[in-house]
Amino acid sequence: MDNAAPKKTCCESVRDFFTSAKFLIYMGHALSTWGDRMWNFAVAVFLVELYGNSLLLTAVYGLVVAGSVLLLGALIGDWVDRNPRLKVAQTSLLVQNSCVILCGIVLMVVFQYKDQLASMYNGWPLTACYIMVISIANIANLASTATAITIQRDWVVVVAGQDSSTLADMNATVRIIDQLTNILAPMLVGQIMAFGSHFIGCGFISGWNLCSMCLEYALLWKVYQKTPALAVKGGRKEQEQELKQLNSPREMENGLTPEESSQPLMTDGGVVVARPSPSTKDTSCCYQVTEPLRTLKAGWVSYYNQNIFFAGMSLSFLYMTVLGFDCITTGYAYTQGLNGSVLSLLMGASAIAGICGTVAFTWVRKKCGLIRTGFISGVAQLSCLMLCVASVFAPGSPLDLTVSPFLDLYSHLVGDRGTLPEADHSLIQGLTGDILSGNATMVPPMEELPPLQSYMSVCLLFAGVIAARLGLWSFDLTVTQLIQESVAESERGVINGVQNSMNYLLDLLHFIMVILAPNPEAFGVLVLISVSFVAMGHAMYFRFAFKSLGTRIFLCCSPEQKAIEAIVESPSLPTTV
Q: In whole angstroms, how far apart are CA 401 and each of 369, 455, 524?
């Protein structure tokens, strides 16, 4: 008894928590996401203001950002996999914040000297500034993607160690931080720009990112020091060396040199396989130029071969929906007679529901297991979305099947007189801004809409959207943890990069769907299509879950069964070397 460790006091426990690697990661993530949310909100406003209240620059910026992540997601993840963790985190942090600071400075110059720049050389200096801002901001977004992959998908797993419950708690906490900053950060920078000016807003964001970069850099270093496992990365170089040693005798018998046989590795369902050896001519300049394309192809093939492929696809399909609090749904709500005050309350209720879903995830996972939690979350989300389906046919719904939902775009935009109808102008602008930026704010129509005879349809719609957030966020966390635990450490970056690309692809497809059917009479059709894609996504997850657990997915498991299923659900949880 004398050798027993003394029990810690309350103050010591609190001190240990605030100095732990977990809390330091939370702090760094809060600083990072706060700066990201402020910048993502402000850059759309800045671009609209600079281009004479037009959404053209915002649309171009959104298209460039979405296209870049869609095309380069796998390459970013591959870069994360091939380099040491600390180097990746520090580099992406420095690039991201430096680009935002530089963008802020350029925008301050443009706001201050816009008239002079527009009058010089027929306005080409001003155009060059626009191109510079969009290009640098795109680089900042790509660096932000790398930061999210390395911290949220890799560092969190290593810090959690072998404890799946700790990993679930950390994922839930990180997601709560995301939801809170997504609401509070735009409010702060919006107030600064409202009571100050856009020039002051640019200066504030640049200053914030400069201070935040220094603090985040120090926090990353402290987490790295407190978690020795972060210094050990079982990457591809170690696998290449191991295979090289195993194959050396056979290769010498076949007359192969070590250089010809030492090739990068990929994993196929967790099994390490060698890539084909390139011939001597493949080391030419052409071979080096096409290396990114081969890496991109290998990343997508590896994603397809993962045992969690259908789980990842199910999450991507949830992005193909208009049932969210974006500008599309906001614009439709305005056409149904809801004002900004009511919408702000509904957005707050949605955030609360999302936080409740995040908390529920940790509780349900402990009771039912990780895979079964995703199944329960999917059923809950689909059940709530039935309210949205009912809203399509409820009194007050503008659904009119006699109006073709896929109108000819030219005739819709130009109208019968060859000019854009004034009543549709703000709606189309709002839709276009959100389609390509995701940050623009929908404005109400220019003409006051007549009051509806019944609000039952719009009430059912938003009741379903808000209630579905419970299952949505719980399901998102389930798939996130499945990817974290099931993907090999050497491929964690590239698989998450491809997952981001899939999410962006389905997100863009849902905006294209809205472009094809922008009239409120067709919104009910979009709702039905959205619910269908959500159902298909959860059907994919059910296939994955049934393949993993069989009929046991419908049964409540005992503690002994949960212990066995934990091995099935976490086959690749990283080990400390």
A: 44, 20, 9
CA dihedral 165, 167, 169, 173 (to 10 degrees): 180
Q: What is the pLDDT of residues 438-494, one digit of tens each?
A: 444 444 443 444 455 578 888 999 999 999 999 999 999 999 999 999 998 888 899
Residues 6+ apart with CB under 8 A from 565: 369, 371, 549, 552, 557
Q: What is the DSSP string of 113-149?
A: HHHHHHHSGGGHHHHHHHHHHHHHHHHHHHHHHHHHH
Question: For residues 552 and 332, is the Cβ–Cβ distance under 8 A?
Answer: no
**Is the sign of the CA dihedral 300, 303, 309, 312 positive or negative?**
negative
Neighbours of 174 (CB within 10 A): 21
Nearest to 376 by CA among 541, 558, 531, 533: 541
How far apart (Å, rounded) are the C-alpha atoms in residues 375 and 552?
A: 12
pLDDT over threshold 60, residue 405: no
Looking at residue 7, the DSSP 8-state letter turns out to be: P
Sort 121 into a burial class: Cβ within 10 Å, 0-12 / 13-18 / 19+.
exposed
What is the model's pLDDT at position 204? 93
Identify whether the C-beta of residue 359 lies closer than 8 Å to the C-beta of residue 173.
no
Angstrom distances, CA of residue 325 to CA of 66, 329, 443: 19, 6, 14
Chain segment 483-520, per-residue pLDDT in tens: 999 998 888 899 999 999 999 899 888 888 887 877 88
Q: What is the pLDDT of residues 205-257, one digit of tens each?
A: 999 999 999 999 999 999 999 999 998 876 544 444 433 443 444 444 444 44
Note whether 431 and 515 are within 8 A (CB): yes
Question: Taking every pair of C-alpha atoms in the chain, what is the biggest distance, in angstroms?
Answer: 93
As a whole number of angstroms, the distance between CA 166 and CA 185 comes to: 28
Nearest-angstrom CA–CA distance, 396 and 64: 39
Axis crossing angle, helix 124-150 with helix 21-50, rounded to the nearest 10? 160
Lookup: tokens for 172: 């839930």
34 vs 522 pLDDT, higher one: 34
The tens digit of pLDDT for each residue in 280-317 reads 445 567 777 788 888 888 889 999 999 999 999 999 99
For helices 456-486 and 309-317, give the axis angle rounded to 10 degrees: 160
Composition of the chain by helix, strand, coil, percent to 5: 80, 0, 20
- Map tokens 């095309």 to a residue: 71
User: Which pLDDT value is given to residue 445?
Assistant: 42
Per-residue HEC secondary structure of 156-201 comes to HHHHHCCCHHHHHHHHHHHHHHHHHHHHHHHHHHHHHHHHCCHHHH
The single residue listed with the structure tokens 């932000």 is: 144
With helix as H, strand as E and coil as C, how does 264-329 read? CEEEECCEEEECCCCCHHHHCHHHHHCHHHHHHHHHHHHHHHCCCHHHHHHHHHCCCCCCCCCHHH
